[in-house]
Amino acid sequence: MTHRTFLPLSLSPPVRDGLGVGLVVGVSGLAFGTTAVSAGLTAAQACALSLLCFTGASQFALVGVVAGGGNVIAGAVGALLLGGRNTLYGLRLAELLGWRGVRRVVAAHGVIDETTAVALAQSGRTDARTGFSVTFATLFLLWNCSTLVGAIATEQIGDTRVFGLDAVGPAIFLALLWPRLREGGRVLLVAVLGAGIAVAATPLLPPGVPVMLAAVAALAGPSGAPTTGGPGSAADPSAASAAPEGRQP
Amino acid sequence: MTLWIAILLTGIGCYLLKYAGLSAPRRLLDHPLVNRFAMTVPVALLAALIALQAIADGRDLVLDVPKLAGLATAVVALLLRAPFLVVILAAAATAAGLRLLGVG
User: Fold this and answer.
1) Domain ranges for chain A
2) A122, A234, B62, B74: least surrounded by Cβ within 10 Å?
3) Min CA distance, A203 vs chain B (Å)?
């Protein structure tokens, strides 16, 4: 983890990693609160999304469709498609954490890019559990507080275009996606195809639908070649030197 | 009201997706097609969102110079390996600065 430098070295590795990622990424809830209110959500709706979804990319996706005047149900479907990768993280974490019952029910809410990345970076179940828990707790607290602050501040501003906040949404997605785009190859092909499909379909289909249609691009490219996917690479904010959104959380 | 319903449904759905993974048999992930699709779906969706947020307004394609310049600044910042928040602030500052100068 690249975040340990500004935290006391006396902390154990999982605590240090968890706090570092949680603090850095948690602040980007400000950007979510801002984007949500710019898109036309109320501060309460922005906060509800951060509390209930707690997975950045999905939250930004729903808000992005609302901003484009799209059908909110189509936006919700797009958000759930993006949330699908948390299922895969869960598959990986199930064995590693080995939690059952109530602990599993609570831990499930925290299965996102950042917690997975920190948990997988530890050695042994005890450290993995600690890393997961510290990241989850720090990030959940900060992400929700900073969403509230960002949303309320933006409600006071009025015309958000004056502050360039309309450029913030796409810039966040780009920063989240960047580590994967650097892989080039099939991933880059999928990205270009996805963007192309969405743009081509925009004049023809109701807003929100072109983004869902872009999921087809994920099937592109030569088969059989295993992707280098994984918590650290699937649009992982932590890889973008500041760790988001999706990563945000 | 519809928006609140969408928020609740998305919240419940996102939780269930997480919980499903944490409780599902691990061999599901080993299925090549599941793995392949699931690992690149975020890339396709995020790329589509970037493109549409950059140039789409409803069903219209619109070129907003300050917004696109902001996005271009974000690309430069990412190439320079700037931290996440710096990338975002640079994009917003560029768009805001150009509008202040009367561009777009």
Assistant:
1) 12-183+228-239
2) B62
3) 5
